[in-house]
Structures are given as structure tokens and as C-alpha cells.
Amino acid sequence: MKAVVYRQNGPSSVLEVCERPQPRVAHDEVLVRLARAGVNPTDWKGRLLSPPAFDEVTPGEDGAGTVVEVGPGVGSHQVGDRVWVMLAQHERPYGTAAELVAIPERRAVPLPDAASFDLGASLGIPAVTAHCALTSGRVSELGPDALRDQWVLVAGGAGAVGNAAIQLARWAGATVIATVSSPAKGALATAAGAHHVLDYREPDTTAEIAALAPSGIDLVVEVAPEVNRDLDLQVIANGGTIAVYGTEGGPTVSIPVRDAWSKNCRYRFLLVYELEERDLRAAADAINAAIADQAFDVGEHHGLPLRHFDLEQTADAHDAVEAGVVGKVLIDLDSAPRSS
């Protein structure tokens, strides 16, 4: 099979396309022939910054494809099942930038019949992170009406996590405000389903949010906690939650105790790699339920443009994500139809 590997840290030029033997499936594992692989910021950051824990690494946590072999002890999957894949390369040498990947069966989630492989490969880290953020406040389970009468503020509404958070929050009944940095990104957040879209660069953004939600924001999905600290603490409702999943704008956050104290609010910091299995399963179930309700999709019309690359262009795909391309970057591993 064809696979992309790297053996040392460095720029995208360390990535090499080569031939590798077909993976062998172990106990409780399935072998998936991938149609698409998703590229996330953690892929290029790991390749650039984290010394490889194995002799060689195939990057890629997310993907979608078809089960072609099941190992001993597998009871949840059969050959021919369509699946979306999450955390494929976490603590393992080989991820989804390859034609085939062997993974624990719990990392292969049934892909609803109506969902494209493009959608499946766009889930994983972004959608699971969004689900965890949305269940960090006053609800522990996400479903239709779970967030009814709640206000959710999504910072960075045009990013992959922001897009997923908007779609899932709206499906769950919340009123969603998204902040963005340009009219073009605002159009994407609107397409994703945000009820209100504001430019965070404008000086009156805090006042606009307060006017829309005079009782305060129940939940903030935050990617830039230091940059947005003052705004978040001013608009958060009494007892609200600020769910932090990123470090844009700086790796630290300084929280004024009295300001947070006066709101009885809490910060929740999220890292999908450290979630417990029950949280991952709850996220997968809710995401699939939203897909089944036709409330979650990808593509320009759903606020997340797709950027396709061939496997031989994996270095270019990493560079695009590192450069902050707007939309979801996918690696095509077969000729499955592309979403519009």
C-alpha cells in the first residue's frame, strides 16, 4: 500500500510517500481502506515539534472509509461497513495518511448511510472537540432541545471546530452567536447556522453581545482565551462556562479572579486526546444523531469549504493547514465523489 511517513522532526519536506506492507490486524482491531483522510493542526505540529516515538510515523488522526478485515474479538463491525475514524495515530505509529489503517474497533465509528466520506473524514478531532465543549456547561448529553433557551458564543466561527460547534449547538436548540474576523468568514458562520455573526475586531462587539443576550452567555466555545478574556468575562452569564480548546493568540491566560468570581463562572480546558472512552463514545453517538437528522454536514453551503489534496500532496496539505487555510483539508485516497 501507499503511505506517507516521516522519521524525524522538521518541515513538511520530511514527509515521504512510499510503499508499505498491508497492516496486520490484532485483537479487537479492524482494517479500514480509507477513502479520505482529514488533516488537523495537530498533524503538522506533531511532525514539526514532537520527537517521533516510533522509528517512523504516518500522520493523521481522522479519516473515513470501509472495513476490509476484522481481527479476533471484534464484535461491532463487519467487512463492508462504512466508518469514520478518530484518533487513529494517537499513541500509535501509523495514522490515516495511507491507503489502509489498522485501528482499535472503538476508534472506527459507523458512518450513517447518507453521509459522504468527505463528511466522515471531517469529523474526528473537530467534531468531538466541539461536542465536548458544548457538554461542558449545564448539560452532559447533547441532543435535540438539550440546549434550548441557552445562548452559546462560538469564537472563531469559521474554523473547523467552530463550524462543528455552531452546527451541533443549533441542532441542540441553542441560540448561537459566532465571532469572526472578516465578512467572508462571517458568511461561512452564517451558512453553518449561527443566528448572529459579529466581527470581533469591532470595538462594540461586547456591547452587541450584551444587547442580544441581556441575561448573559451560558456557554462560550473559546479558541483564544487570552485575547478574548475580557470579552468572555463581561458577557458570560452567572454560572456560565468558558470551554477552552485552543491557544490562539498566546499559550497562557491570566484570569482576573474577582471578575470570574463575581460571575460564578468556570473555565473548562479541553484536549480530545485525554478524554475518557465514555466521552468519546457519547460524542460519536451525538454527532451521528445530528448527521441522521440532516443537521450536520460539510462543504461551502454548510460553512466549511473543502480543500482536496492527493496522497502525494500530503506535504502541501500540511502546509495549507499550517498557513491557516479557511476550510477543511482532506487527502483523497480513492475516487469517491466529492461533496459540493
Describe the overall structure.
- With 340 residues, this protein is of the alpha/beta class.
- It folds into two domains: 2-122 and 298-332, Alpha-Beta Complex (Quinone Oxidoreductase, Chain A, domain 1), CATH 3.90.180.10; 127-273, 3-Layer(aba) Sandwich (Rossmann fold).
- The protein is 27% helix and 25% strand.
- The protein has helices spanning 41-49, 117-121, 124-134, 160-171, 183-192, 205-212, 229-235, 257-262, 277-292, 314-322; strands at residues 2-5, 16-19, 29-39, 62-70, 82-85, 100-104, 108-110, 151-155, 175-180, 196-199, 217-222, 236-244, 266-269, 306-310, 328-332.
- The strands form three sheets. Strands 3, 4, 5, 6, 7, 14 and 15 form a seven-stranded mixed beta sheet that branches. A six-stranded parallel beta sheet has the order 10-9-8-11-12-13, with helices on both faces.
- Helix 1 packs across helix 10, helix 3 (124-134) packs across helix 4 (160-171) and helix 3 packs across helix 9 (277-292).
- The radius of gyration is 20 Å and the shape is globular.
- It starts with a strand and ends in an 8-residue tail after the last strand.
- The model has no long low-confidence stretch (mean pLDDT 96).
- GO terms for molecular function: mRNA 3'-UTR binding; NADPH binding; quinone reductase (NADPH) activity.
- It comes from Nocardioides antri.
- Residues 10-331 form the Enoyl reductase (ER) domain.
- Keywords: NADP.
- This is NADPH:quinone reductase.
